[in-house]
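Extended Data, panel c. Modelled sequence:
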Amino acid sequence: MFKTILCAIEASDEGKEVLSHASQLSKLCDAQLLVVHVIPYALLPKDYQKELEEEAKPKIREIASEFDISEKCQFIKVGKPYQHICSLAEKKNADLIILGTHSQKGVQALLGSTANAVVNKATCNVSLVKV
């Protein structure tokens, strides 16, 4: 069914929940599972971006290690989340992108979200996990 699944997570319990769903599906499909975490701060100084990346690495490694995902399958990026998620999915020939979504109401729903942007820009299937 799927050969490569890209799971976009935050360094949080919600990210762990999303990755749990992705891990279960990857096992059912015998698919490679990749994990990406995007730090949405493209306009900050490079030194600060690097510091944020270094802070995120151990958190993402810890979450990914719970699901036996090797470090070579973990990616941390800085910039616009939807762009990095879609770009990495294309580069790695992902068949499916899995990411979490928060219920948004009012103005936030009108402005859109990372999940909405990924659904509209991705060239592969996208699955949303409601957290």
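DSSP finds five helices and five strands in the chain. This feature is highlighted in the accompanying rendering.
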